[in-house]
Each structure stands twice: as C-alpha cells, then as structure tokens.
Specification:
alpha+beta, five-stranded antiparallel beta sheet, 30% helix, D-amino Acid Aminotransferase, Chain A, domain 1, Rossmann fold, Dna Ligase, domain 1, five-stranded parallel beta sheet
Length: 419
C-alpha cells in the first residue's frame, strides 16, 4: 500500500517510522512532514488542514490509506471529504471529532452516558464567568472550549488567577475562536495518565497506558505545553482500575456512540485522572497522542498497518496486538522560550551520536533541513525515545542520548518518568 500521513510533528514521524517497518507498505508520503519523515518517504508541500489539496495529493500518488495526525484536520472534516471521494482514511468524521474540538460537546456526551468526569459549567459570556468564579470553590480548571494546541488549560488557585484566565481567553482572544467559550471545572485530585483505544463500529481495542508530562518545567511547574515527554507503562493502573476503565469509560463510550448515532472509526485518547473514587475522564482527544505515540510505537510488536486497516473496516475489536514488555520513555527537546515565543533556524548537532546508543530512536517534530543540516523549525523539536527492561533503564538511556544533542537555546525537563 501507498500510505499518506497527514501532519508534520513528532507523532507523525513516529507513525511513519512504525509503518515503514510493515512489509505491506510500499511507499510513505507525509504532508507536510518534517526532516525526519523525509528520511522515510516523500514529504509533500501540502498543509495539514488544506483538505482539497490533500484529496488531490491522495489521488495523484495513488494513496491506499491516509492516516490523520492533527486534531484540526479532523475538525475541518478531512475524513468526510476523503470518504466522499471513495478514499480510505483513518480517523473520525467531523461530527465525531467534536468530542475533542468542543469540550462542551464532549462534556455533555459524558454526562448523558454516565462516563465519570469532573463537574463543570460552560460560559459564553465573560461577565457571567467572572461572576460565577467569585463565589466558587478553588482550585478551578479553566479550559478554552476549542482546539488550543494543548495550551488552553489553566489551573486557577484563587479568583484573581481565574479572572486573568477568563479575560485572556474570552476578552483578549488568546486562543482565537477556540477560546470564545470556556469550560470551568472542579479540580480533580489524583494522578494523571493517558488512555488510548482504537474504536470502530465493532467495539474497541485498548492500548497500554502512558503518562504525559504537560508542564514546561521540572516538578510540573510552569505553563501547559503540548507535552514535554512520556512514559509507558505509567505504573498507575492496577487490575481493578483497568476493569473500571473498561466498564465505566470504554463500554459506556461505545454504547453512547451507538445511542447517539455517531459513527466513529479512529483513535480515542481520553486523558484520565485516577481519583480516590476511581478513574475520571478529563477530556477526550480523537487522534493519536503526541508525544504518547512516540512511546507506543517503540513497544508495539504488531504491524500498525494491520490495526489501522482493521479500524477502517469495523473489525478492530477482534484484533489482539502484541506489546513488548519493555518500558519506553520519550524526552522532548524544545526551543528556548517554548511554549511562548521562540527562535527557529538553529542548527542541531549530535543526533547521529545519540542514535548510535542501543535502544534509542529520535523522532523529529519541529525540524527541517537546510543545506544538508538539521535545523529547528518549531517549539517541540525532537522526541528522544528509549526502551529498557524497566522504566529506570529506559529513562537513563533516553537522557544519556538527549544530552548528546544540542542547539542554541535547547531545553528539556529532567524529571520525565521520575517517581
């Protein structure tokens, strides 16, 4: 098969890397891709949200399966457009992708179908939001309703912080249309981890758990980012918690889809908070996580193409993927200033040396090639991944490799996967 991967980040490079190992894949195309995906196939100069151009590219290159990475492409209806042209594509249609593109839609879905989640209120008027927060119990979680690249969430510990978050999102337009409506939630106490499952009309196929590290600085300090690193497994879910996840979240999710008549074929990625009363869903994502995908592809032994095709054909519930028992760790190297303003075009050194370490793979995110050199082209630049017999070995190996890589302003957290 010729495969097209839509997107240009670390997730897309990881998917391309795994698919390149499938004996069934003839050629990989990425749109727009990055310097890493260019080493595995052909990058196409097409934006991830340019749906008409992507449809044309799929026809021009005889693409037999398209895999969608970014959430905004799903929200823009790329799956609907491809299906209308008779083109096979992995991902949910726009009506289903609303579970991610509108937190209010997702929250309402969870309430109606009994999926455990935080209590919440939605506001489209900033004055009403401010007024409600003056008498609320703190801390509160304030979220932009729409897609904000993982940066539209603020944990407010007092009314002043809440007021600033509401003003920034609703009045100043920091997140554009995505922040015109806000969701204000109760703050859930517990430990956070990520769940992934392939979902289609036949049911679902659960992946192992993972843990993302969202905050920019060590000790979970600083602003939220798109993700500074991941580990898998998280070590947080015991057998009882997994049973709760299946019965209270995944079974109810699939039943809710059927009840509401929502067609869903793709990855479901709920963020979980493991509370004293059991797992609760923080929010839904309707695509592969980033940087969760980077650790999953290192542990997955089954051909990823087989799983993706099964999902497009409503038979994923019968799949039983094989997973390496090894632990995996991904440490993200970022540009100085991320998630705020940051420079680009900085030459990257040390990738080749890092990749020589046993168990290490480097996934490119914000990179491009300039006169034969790798240079920075984004906030999250590289995902340094390693596997090991246990998490301590995987962490140590990933950090050993990460410290061999340098560019002007490089930053990383030093506590990814630390207890």
């Amino acid at each position: 098969m010729n495969v097209l991967i839509v997107g240009g980040g670390g997730r897309e490079h990881a998917i391309a890397w795994k698919l390149s190992r499938s004996p069934r894949v003839t050629k990989i195309f990425c749109a727009p891709g990055n310097a890493g995906t260019a080493l595995l196939g052909e990058n196409l100069p097409v934006g991830a949200s340019d749906v008409p151009a992507l449809v044309q590219a799929a026809r021009d290159h005889r693409i037999e399966l398209t895999v969608v990475g970014p959430d905004d492409a799903l929200a823009a209806g790329i799956v609907d457009a491809f299906q209308a042209e008779g083109l096979k594509i992995f991902g949910p249609v726009a009506a289903a992708a609303q579970l991610e593109s509108s937190k209010a839609f997702g929250k309402d879905f969870m309430r109606r179908h009994g999926i455990p989640t935080a209590e919440a209120r939605e506001f489209e008027d900033s004055l009403k939001a401010h007024a409600w927060c003056t008498s609320a119990r703190y801390p509160l979680v304030i979220k932009a309703d729409g897609l904000a690249l993982g940066k539209g969430v603020v944990i407010a510990t007092n009314p002043l912080e809440a007021a600033m978050a509401i003003h920034r999102s609703m009045d100043l337009g920091a997140f554009g249309v995505a922040g015109r409506r806000v969701i204000i939630e109760e703050f859930l106490e517990g430990r956070e981890c990520s769940l992934h499952a392939l979902v289609d009309g036949s049911g679902y196929c659960l992946f192992p758990d993972a843990k993302d590290h969202k905050r920019a600085l060590d000790g979970d300090a600083g602003p939220n980012t798109g993700g500074m690193g991941t580990i898998s497994p998280s070590g947080l879910l015991d057998a009882a918690a997994w049973e709760d996840v299946r019965m209270q979240i995944m079974d109810r999710f699939v039943a809710g889809l059927r009840s509401d008549g929502i067609p869903y074929r793709g990855m479901l990625f709920p963020g979980l908070m493991l509370t004293a009363s059991g797992p609760k869903v923080l929010e839904f994502n309707c695509r592969f996580g980033d940087p969760e995908t980077q650790v999953f592809v290192r542990r997955l032994e089954t051909d990823l193409l087989d799983l993706l095709v099964a999902c497009t054909e409503d038979r994923v519930a019968a799949e039983t993927p094989v997973w390496d028992e090894a632990a995996a760790c991904c440490v993200v190297l970022t540009s100085g200033g991320y998630p705020g303003k940051y420079p680009t075009g900085k030459e990257i050194a040390g990738i080749e040396a890092a990749e020589k370490i046993a168990g290490v793979e480097i996934f490119h995110a914000g990179t491009r090639q300039d006169s034969g050199r790798f240079v920075t082209a984004g906030g999250r630049v590289l995902g340094v991944t390693a596997t090991g017999i246990d998490l301590n070995v995987a962490r140590s190996t990933a950090y050993t490799a990460a410290r061999l890589i340098g560019f002007d302003g490089v930053t990383m957290r030093s506590d990814i996967g630390a207890a």
